[in-house]
Amino acid sequence: MSLFSPKSELGVVFHIGSSSVGAGLVRLKRGEIPHVVFALREPLPYRDELDAQRFLADMVEAVKRTNLRLAKEGLAHLKFTEFGSLSVKRVFCAFASPWSVTQTKIATIEKKEGFVFTKEMAERVLREQEKIFEREMAEGSPGLANALDTIEERVVQIKLNGYEIAEPYGKRAEKAEISIFMSFVPKAVVEKVSEAAYMAYHPKSVQSFSLPLAAFSTVRSAFKGEKDFIFLDIGGELSEISVVKDGLMLETASFPFGRHFVVRKVSKALGASPEEAASLIRLAEENQATPDVLERLAPIMAEARKEWMDAFHYVLQGVSTRTSVPTKLFAVIYNDFVPFFMKALKDEKVAEFGVIDVPLSVTLLNHDKLKPVVAFGKHSDKDPFLALLSAFAGKLYSSE
């Protein structure tokens, strides 16, 4: 079949993060893994202090700059590939923390006399859970529910009589457990990002989803059989943890220690600019810094690494009060800070915090690990976040 058939389309996949906006031009075709033809990333301005309104404005400007660069660089690059005749038809927007809030709810239907489980039952539970969430939001923060947009509402697992059933509809049971994953993003954020996408590409559709759900789905596809794991997204301003048990994403939590936390520590201690601090950190982690710089940085980096690990384990300790913590961890990290955080995660002292009994088994998610579910063009930047998200976008596209 020709690459230029109607079943081959071009999409743009956005990663809306806490310190940058990434975007990829992705060839989509049913029956084939998505192919990232071109990828780029635009940083948000570094701020010593965060202000919500300015943070939103910075993100929207980064989206607009990304669109301009895709038009100038990406589409120009496309002309010299086998996908040169394609134009953008789909846009996918993935929101990471703090832009999105996610939660998993488990609803139970139980009747001693038994019942036939139907799709209508699952849909009714979905509607009920959304109303419960809106009521909880209204009680806790009046006005907040109306300010949020539900971008995801999915039944992610159904158990009948305690067993997960792939095709549950029409089956008889005494008890059904319906697990629902929901994601919420401020309406102002969704509207501004969608508006920028429609103005730039005039696509057939703009679909929004959360990074945790995309990561959960992609890890399950790329690593068959994995049902218990931690997913860790280390962003610029935040790190986010998602805990998966028995094939279900139980909960997601974030803490305000990301790449920028390390940069701020070094910048303040050395009296250097953020750009200089980031450069020194990279040189030190790659063992390319001078002995004098290494000596000055060593105690600062050690302190930053310990503070990050303390925050990481504080979150896991909270999880451990509700369920056992998986020992397998999949991490996605900005390329320039991989050594710093991998050293922290692989530290043998992880086992001494009392959260888990054995060291974490850490897998860094990158293009090589995700080859079964996503491909990259020879000259494309192999952005690990866009790899995860493009794989999920391909799954959404193929399911239509």
Structural descriptors:
Dna Ligase, domain 1; 3 domains; Nucleotidyltransferase, domain 5; alpha/beta; six-stranded mixed β-sheet; about 400 residues
Write the element-wise H/E pattern from the N-terminal end onward.
Answer: EEEHEEHHEEEHEHEEEHHHEHEEH
End-to-end separation: 20 Å
- The CATH topology of the largest domain turns out to be Nucleotidyltransferase, domain 5
Principal-axes shape call: globular
Return the CATH class of the largest domain.
Alpha Beta
Description:
There is one protein chain. The protein has 400 residues and is α/β, with parallel strands linked by helices. The chain folds into 3 domains: 8-99 and 188-222 and 367-399, 2-Layer Sandwich (Nucleotidyltransferase, domain 5), CATH 3.30.420.40; 102-185, 2-Layer Sandwich (Dna Ligase, domain 1); 229-364, ATPase, nucleotide binding domain (Nucleotidyltransferase, domain 5, 2-Layer Sandwich). 40% of the residues lie in helices and 30% in strands. The protein is built from 10 helices and 15 strands. It has a 6-stranded mixed sheet with strand order 9-4-1-2-3-15, sandwiched between helices. A 5-stranded mixed sheet has the order 12-11-10-13-14, with helices on both faces. The radius of gyration is 22 Å and the shape is globular. The relative contact order is 0.15. Residues 1-5 and 348-356 have low confidence and may be disordered.
